[in-house]
Amino acid sequence: MGSEWKTKDLKDCATWYSGGTPRKGTAEYWGGDIPWISAKSLKDFFVSDSEDKVTEEGSRNGTKLVPKDTILFVVRGMSLKSEFRIGITTRPVTFNQDLKALVANDEILPHFLAYAIRGRTAEILDLVGEAGHGTGVLPTDRIQAVQIPCLPLKEQQRIIDVLRTLDDKIELNRRMNATLEGMAQALFKSWFVDFDPVIDNALAAGNPIPDELAPRAEVRKKALSMGTSQQGSVDHPTLSDPKSLFPAAFEFTEEMGWIPEGWETQPLYDIADFVNGAAYKGADFSDAEDALPVIKIAEVKAGITGQTKFTTINKGDKYRVVDGDILLSWSGNPDTSIDTFIWTDGPGYLNQHIFNVRLHDESERHFVYYQLKFLRSTFAEIARDKQTTGLGHFTAGDMKRLMVFRPTTSVLEQFNAAVSSIYSRAYENRIATKTLTKLRNTLLPKLISGGLQPTTSHDS
Description:
The strands form 9 sheets. Strands 2-11-7-9-4 form a 5-stranded mixed β-sheet, covered by helices on one side. The protein has a 4-stranded mixed β-sheet with strand order 5-3-10-6.
């Protein structure tokens, strides 16, 4: 029984490793095929890739190469103020100095150890201290003292089987949504960044192509001559003849240069109403049954967790969040927090530093959402230029200066028709993932503590 389970310090469950950063100025160390994991790239429980990669030489100079089934978790960073990032590698990787790596001892299965640590998330976050400039720090001696249950390998595997089934479904949904988002973004880029249908129409009509768009025109010429379409091209299986909705010429504007003829320009801030959240203080929080969660960036990214604060204070219905709302985080780590999200975790009150994007017209939902998603790198760049103490931000003023164009109504309607099913499927996957995540987070501490006995298909 769980009450009889013995425990031991986490420090005695694994071999511990520290990471590092190879010299950025040494070209021979970077650009290889070995992932280099940082707090920025440690987003998912199963760790397999990162934007930054090192060479074999880089893996031997300034960092540490660890094998498959190594547990990684963040011990320093702004994210520690609100979340504990942990994952287990599915391939050999390297990692930086803000993470610790654990290779499980023989008497404990790697995935069980990862789940056991993850099940102590609330306890671990209480151990986090603060370094200069507000950076969260998890002292090694404190987390090494966290207690891990000592179970027979068979019992460990039974617990893994239950939790891994849920995590595999969550991971499948994540991959499906990455594919769906990629499809919609490819079409958005083709129509509203590369202007493929306008270029195609201009080429067919013999109209001039602006010099800035000449390279893309050459790509389109080759694709059309070969009778093929490339990723991100105008062709889409649900559209009969979308090119007929686009003009066949470009016109020059002072605000944005060359844009499709007949389209308008406007500040990004005018595409919707961007309502900033309200400021909630500790005195506003409540444990009352009718209290609603205060939605901060941690909740936007991870949903409602044990760390979420609740309040009964409604500072205005405009701050109330419901499922399906588009939320734009404008403050935080430029690499991990500045982004656009769809809320799917029930009613709550929006905290400051996040915009609730209130649409002028529901029919513009898909265009507005995918435009904001496409601009993520632009937002991050602006925020990075203003970054202080690990945080960056962009403002309503920045959005008023950032110009975008508005296509004709017929093009917007056609884009809506093209991506509506993609958007809906992705939304349904988010809802399913939230349900699976809540179930896993409920079962995890109970299984690890012995409060719930796992049952698998191997049981009679």
